Fold:
Amino acid sequence: MPSVSASKPNPAAPLTVGIMRAVFATAVAGFLAAGCAEGPEQANKEVARSYLQALLVDADWAQWDNYFGPAASINGSGFALQIMRGTAEGLHFSFSDLELEISQQVAEGDWVATRFTLHGVHERPFNDQPATHAPVELNGFVMDRFSAGRVAESRMLLDVWGLSRSTAAAAARAPRGAGN
Structure:
């Protein structure tokens, strides 16, 4: 039976292993950078999340200029601040404990689409429905165009019809006199 001898070291092996390690490290670094890089689309998505929280939920109007450009429009109107403020004030009048849940965001170029839900408690009348003190959800969608890191144009849709239906249903279930 032939004897097994120790193989001779291959002088190219350290070089091959070194090249493979370098290629692997470069591939991993590229993969991590692609997944973690903060590009303009990711930054715009963060601005959209932040302004919805700061303005609709926290009503922190001092932050307006951080999120919206000087000529920003909402739903085609140049009265963007007034529209957003009126929306938030109406929500805060009727609903307490507002919380924002971002369901989905998609960014492409200068545009960010955000689907969200506001959760709260129906504490005062809303659309002729007395307070039910019941939990409510308001679904919304906003499509924002960004310029220089701030919103230049926004289209916001709130499912007020769905909210009205749910408050009416809750009011119908409430015992008489409980809606005050």
